[in-house]
Amino acid sequence: MAIRPIVTFPNPVLKTRCEPVTSFDEALTTLLDDMRDTMNEAEGLGLAANQVGVSLRIFTMGLPTGEDEDAPVEHFEIINPEIVTKKGEIRFEEGCLSFPGIAESVTRAGQVELRYYDRSGAEIVRVFDGVAAVCVQHEFDHLEGVTFLDRLSPLKRRLAMRAYKKAMAQARDDAEDEGRSAVRPWR
Length: 187
Ligand code: NI
Description:
Layout: H1 26-41, E1 46-48, E2 58-64, E3 73-87, E4 90-94, E5 104-108, E6 111-117, E7 123-129, H2 130-143, H3 154-183
Antiparallel strand pairs: 1-2, 2-3, 3-6, 4-5, 6-7
The protein binds nickel (II) ion (NI).
């Protein structure tokens, strides 16, 4: 198990449609274990394989089973997913590990029925509601090469992109400042 580096926008792998998984082998097991560790370390609700640079139709989710902060988290490994049905509507403020520093409200279906495979190759059909449904749709989009900013109006997307660039520039400045103080600790 290992933590893999998370790819940030505008890396082209995030805008590329991912390929289906065809062999349920040891490499897949390792990838799933690494994705779980990477997602937990970054404190994300979900992580798609292309966010660690692997263009395969896989995502993981760690979803709280209750409202309480200490509610147990249920872990999901979703391979070759297919959205069977969508119902209702929910508006939720989303973030993305590939867009550090910004959050935007997105409207999505409030319930989705998902068909997918687990790591052993067994087929599973499950219904997700509310925040879980939001997470499923956000991660499913990643596999299509679609980011949550693509779900915004053109104006909101421009504003969000500006905020993202600013956040990234700030993060770079902070890193440089830290680098300087590490070299010259008296400053
Ligand atoms: Ni994301």
